[in-house]
Write a structure and sequence with these properties.
Layout: H1 6-19, E1 23-28, E2 44-51, E3 54-61, E4 65-71, H2 91-95, E5 103-105, E6 111-115, E7 118-122, E8 139-143, E9 147-150, H3 156-163, H4 184-195, H5 198-202, E10 207-208, H6 212-220, E11 279-285, H7 290-296, E12 301-303, E13 314-317, E14 333-336, E15 345-346, E16 350-352
Parallel strand pairs: 8-12, 11-15
Antiparallel strand pairs: 1-4, 2-3, 3-4, 5-6, 6-9, 7-8, 9-16, 10-16, 11-13, 13-14
């Protein structure tokens, strides 16, 4: 990249974005806000973050100047498509409820993000590339209760602090890496033991695995596109097998191992690594016909669904570092038995609002 003076570089890029319908939003003389994490390259970085159908493009030029440009041309540029159907309200997540904290930090430093009630279309349309039969039919789901979901997957350090210091079953060691290779039963035991800590009990925090509906609702973050980042995905946004491409995407960096939790961009609701890195256990029993049974029911909208009443396996979501991009879509789902130890599967904490 040619060494351009920072302001000149921003001005030139700004002119190009203006032709796409963008307009200058702000000029900053300090570090950018915490929710933006641009990747600095030769003094100039760019990062696209979506907020309820709009796109915020963050430009960082050197250490002493930066500029934000806002555009609503997301759909023209393959960005995340907002769920505009009745009951869907993406802005509610950003505002949250007046009565509660938007983020909670627990006794071992894990951050959980408040997810307010809402409604969304669960599953994938028949036209979505990579779709499998058990992702449909699409059906409307309404979640009526506020809950908190981990900003990141549970780390190995967090796992050891609760389950003991004898290590983890993860194939790659690292305190900040996601714990993986844990069974569904071990994940449930982890939530129970964490909930029993005196400091957690005194705060009224009870942990569990998310339902499959809660997981997908939070992953989508108000979007209806295959990924929360838009129609396609790349290795700057997620950790997966980027030798494969999705849609109009491009090949990228295939890391071939998990990356540190929190090291990749957040979706519009502040959740990181929902796509890829490690599969995540959900609380629901798995059935290939779960969605069909919901659609065949008399209820047009499924309220707080929790999956079938029984089964032989549990749902896992999100994909892993070795997954192809179709497997890390928001609607992608698979399953494993409760005592099966799959090295690619970890967990993300969920908590009802205290």
């Amino acid at each position: 990249m040619n060494e351009m003076r920072p302001i000149a570089a921003i001005a030139e890029l700004g002119r190009r974005l203006t032709r796409l319908g963008a307009r200058p939003l702000d000029a900053l003389r300090t570090d950018p806000p915490a929710e933006f994490h641009g990747r600095i390259c030769s003094g100039l970085a760019r990062r696209v973050t979506r907020r309820g159908g709009q796109v915020l493009v963050l430009l960082i030029a050197g250490a002493d100047s930066s500029c934000l440009i806002q555009t609503s041309a997301a759909s023209d540029q393959g960005g995340a498509r907002a769920d505009q159907s009745p009951g869907a309200n993406p802005s509610a997540r950003a505002k949250s409820d007046e009565a509660g904290e938007t983020r909670v930090t627990n006794s071992f430093g894990a951050v959980l993000v408040r997810i307010a009630p809402g409604e969304f279309l669960m599953g994938s349309p028949e036209s979505e590339s990579g779709r499998t039969h058990h992702e449909g039919p699409q059906h409307r789901v309404r979640l009526t209760k506020t809950y908190y979901l981990g900003e990141t997957e549970v780390t190995q350090a967090q796992w050891k602090s609760v389950m003991g210091s004898d290590g983890t079953p993860s194939p790659y060691a690292g305190d900040d890496l996601p714990v993986s290779g844990v069974t569904w039963q071990e994940a449930v035991d982890f939530c129970r033991k964490l909930s029993e800590r005196p400091e957690e009990r005194s705060a009224g925090r009870v942990y569990r695995l998310p339902t499959e509906a809660e997981w997908e609702f939070a992953c989508r973050a108000g979007t209806s596109t295959p990924f929360s980042f838009g129609e396609t995905i790349d290795s700057d946004q997620a950790n997966y097998d980027a030798d494969f491409i999705y849609g109009t995407g491009k090949k990228g960096l295939t890391r071939q191992r998990p990356c540190p939790c929190g090291s990749l961009p957040a979706n519009a609701w502040g959740l990181r690594e929902m796509h890829g890195n490690a599969w995540e256990w959900c609380s629901d029993f798995y059935s290939r016909d779960t969605y069909s049974a919901r659609v065949d029911s008399a209820n047009q909208v499924q309220v707080d669904p929790t999956g079938p009443p029984g089964g032989m396996a549990y749902v896992v979501r999100g994909g892993a570092w070795s997954s192809n991009p179709a497997e890390i879509r928001s609607a992608s789902r698979t399953n494993y038995g409760p005592t099966y130890r799959q090295v690619l599967v970890g967990l993300r904490l969920c908590m009802d609002a205290p």
